[in-house]
Write a structure and sequence with these properties.
Elements (H helix, E strand, L loop, with lengths): L1 H13 L15 E6 L11 H13 L4 E6 L10 H7 L4 E4 L12 H4 L7 H10 L2 H11 L4 E8 L6 E3 L13 E3 L2 H9 L3 E2 L7 H6 L5 E2 L4 H6 L8 E4 L8 E7 H44 L3 E4 L2 H21 L1 H15 L3 H5 L34
């Protein structure tokens, strides 16, 4: 069954190139109410939703439009999945990690510790079982959505620190703003996760409430002024080497769109994946350069023993999650097999390989920490 679904998904994604529907677009104008997880002004994290809406409008000659709703405009980021499934909104633009409390495997599709970089995700979606498993996760949970991977938001930084950490011992008792799977890894090393909204990270540093923070991508961190609150930024970004955004459409609404509009969405999202793969990398590189050259930030590399301990901690957490949820185990094993070239589909397509991504090394809840506070998905913007 998965094979049939995979073939259907791949066929729908390739049946139409990223071109205009001029002359073929239905006369009816379809408007999809679409809440987004990040404000559309936020570089790299919010701007892809705005670009998707622009491209769909242009290529359909106005017959397919997204009515984007900013975070807090009627739908909080963590409500998007349920609202789309229930038909309260037509669609949503978010990252699957927000649903991890409900669907443990979801974090594997949005970005996870020591996980794939953007290119590896793209290859897994295009040549591996990624698309089929992605849809299967929602179908098995009876979540009534059609999912399309639609953009990359970049790799998160390794973490902001008030002072240097020179060994694993320095992490014992460290108060760090971090959540999710990364928080569980840090807990195994003795750190104490502290929940702080993204807009309050700088204040928390200045008030001495935290010693370190894992926040967003470097470009968003700079927009939020973290370079003024802490002067040490550790790399590489082990916690989330890539951020994958998904476009969710209510299943009944998706079925009613028809093959032309469905194909337009699939092809446009495919183009955005490719475009943002390079754009997000350039954004982060420029921000890191500015940190170092303009802001007086010291960009340091985690010591070897910390990198090794973090990886070992992640392996333990992944094993625990696999026992807790069989689909988490299945998805994690599938994507890691693809990355290593052990998967048949990876070998057939020359694989994503270990390449220059985190599979060859670190690249740029116990008690499960709760998700970030409400509003966390709306970082302070300009």
């Amino acid at each position: 069954m998965r094979t049939l679904l995979f073939k259907a998904l791949m066929a729908s994604g390739s049946c139409l190139a990223a071109a205009s529907l001029a002359g073929a677009a239905p006369a009816e104008v379809v408007i999809l109410e679409t809440p987004v997880a990040f404000g559309t002004h936020v570089p790299g994290l919010g701007t892809p939703a705005r670009e998707l809406a622009k491209l769909l409008d242009e290529r359909s000659e106005g017959s397919l439009q997204l009515d984007l709703k900013e975070p807090g405009d009627g739908t909080a980021p963590f409500e998007i999945l349920d609202k789309v499934s229930d038909g309260k909104v037509d669609a949503g633009f978010a990252t699957a990690g927000y649903w991890a409390a409900k669907l443990p495997a979801a974090s594997l599709f949005g970005g996870y510790p020591f996980g794939p970089n953007a290119k590896e995700y793209q290859d897994w979606f295009n040549r591996g079982h990624g698309r089929a498993l992605y849809q299967e996760m929602y179908d098995q949970a009876k979540v009534k959505v059609h999912v399309v991977p639609c953009a990359f938001g970049g790799a998160e930084a390794g973490g902001w620190f008030a002072k240097e950490v020179n060994s694993v011992d320095d992490l014992d008792g460290l108060r760090m703003r971090i959540f999710g799977l990364g928080a569980r890894v840090m807990m195994q090393l003795g750190a104490v996760p502290v929940l702080v909204p993204g807009s309050r990270i700088a204040d928390a540093f200045e008030e001495g409430k935290i010693d370190a923070a894992e926040a967003y991508t470097p470009v968003v961190d700079r927009t939020n002024g973290l370079q003024d609150a802490a002067k040490i930024l550790y790399q590489p970004g082990w916690n989330q080497p890539a951020t994958v955004f998904e476009f969710l459409v209510n299943q009944d609404r998706w079925d009613a769109l028809g093959p032309e509009r469905q194909s337009l969405i699939e092809s446009t999202c495919g183009e955005l994946l490719q475009r943002t793969l390079s754009e997000s990398s350039n954004l982060q590189a420029a921000a890191l350069t500015a940190f170092s050259n303009e802001d007086g930030v010291r960009i340091l590399e985690f010591p070897d023993d910390i990198q090794e301990a973090l990886r070992e901690g992640w392996e333990e957490v992944a094993e625990e999650e696999g026992v807790r949820d069989y689909l988490f185990k299945e998805v994690h094993e599938d994507i890691e097999a693809f990355r290593s070239g052990d998967d048949d589909t990876a070998q057939a397509g020359n694989g994503a390989g270990k390449g220059d991504g985190p599979s060859g090394g670190v690249n740029a809840e116990a008690t499960i920490p709760p998700p970030p506070p409400p509003g966390e998905a709306t970082p302070a913007g300009p």
